[in-house]
Amino acid sequence: MSASQHMPLFEVFIRSKRGLDHRHVGSLHAEDHQQALEYARDCYTRRSEGVSIWVVRSSDIVASQEEDAAAFYDPMDDKPYRHATHYQLPDEVNNM
Amino acid sequence: MSNPGTTQDVMNYAIALGDDALVLGQRLSEWCSNAPFLEEDLALANVALDYIGRARMFYGYAAELEGRGRSEDDIAYLRDCREYRNLLIAELPRGDFAFSTARQFLVDAWSLGFLEALERSADARLAAIAAKAIKESRYHFRRSRDWMLRLGDGTAESKRRVQDALEQLWGYTPELFGADAIEARLAASGVAVDRTALKAAWDARIDPVLAEAGLQRPVDSWAVSGGRDGMHTEHLGHMLSELQFLQRAYPGQQW
After folding, report:
1. d(CA A55, nearest CA chain B) in Å
2. Whole-model pTM?
3. pLDDT per residue over A39-49, tens digit each?
4. ipTM for the whole predicted complex goes beyond 0.90
5. Residue-wise pLDDT tens digits, B17-61
6. Does residue B77 belong to any structural domain of this protein?
7. What kind and span of H or E run contains A24?
8. Chain A residues with beta carbon closer than 8 angstroms to that of B46
9. Which ranges constitute the DSSP H helices of A30-80?
10. Domain limits at B239?
11. Which domains does chain A have, with CATH numbers?
């Protein structure tokens, strides 16, 4: 019987540099937040990948559902003026 | 270090400290793929690698001091049991997870005091190695301390196992606070750590954790030593036969 079957799952987010955002890098099992933080250090930052770690219980994440895609995202598709690419930029602006 | 006698002493001292690190690192590495679960497997292997890295620094320095062309690998792989100088607690078989955890806890608590003192060594190279290693040991202690609390304050079985482990290990702890002739000479010149002075700080580190974990500090009833003189338990030879197999069977082999 594996101990991890009884331990909650945590999602790990690491900020690789000051000024950047935390990015999701993976998940792990741990008994509590403190242990999750330590395992995150051991599993995901051994090669100097990070300056800051967040861990959050996977069960605390509320995710959108696949079947909601139509209601959630499709309405944006026929409103091209919401996209930056819809607008013609004067050449003087170059890259924006 | 113009005095050759002193150079010889520092070299032997560096080898002894390298032996402490290599032997414990090898024991920890035996958990790789055997730990209770994946995350702990990685964490233990990381600690093992920290120790093996530490051994390389000490052996590398010893090889330079010796100046006879021996490499750090020669020192690790081509010496027999009696030439190893590690403290005995490092070579004991890994036992169950509680045993390995209790050993790490006792050794980590000791390493903190030892490395803090070695950081002030009159030998700049040893001080630099200690400065690097102590950061690792702070993390190691945090880990082993947490595990002592979890096991001591966990189930009846985890508590029994970790208490048994403490009893089995306890007689090996007085050796941590001994001193051999080389260390005594080097301590007098400010190079080596006077280990006899580390006991009070060690007690202060472990006692509150044992109390919080609901564990009994074992009674001082027995003590063994001899590691610094090359007198080892029967376990070291078996460990070295595995550690050294490749270089013994295929001398000079590289990969």
Report:
1. 14
2. 0.88
3. 999 999 877 77
4. no
5. 999 999 999 999 999 999 999 999 999 999 999 999 999 999 999
6. yes
7. strand A23-29
8. 42, 46
9. 33-44, 69-72, 74-77
10. 4-249
11. 3-83 (3.10.20.520)
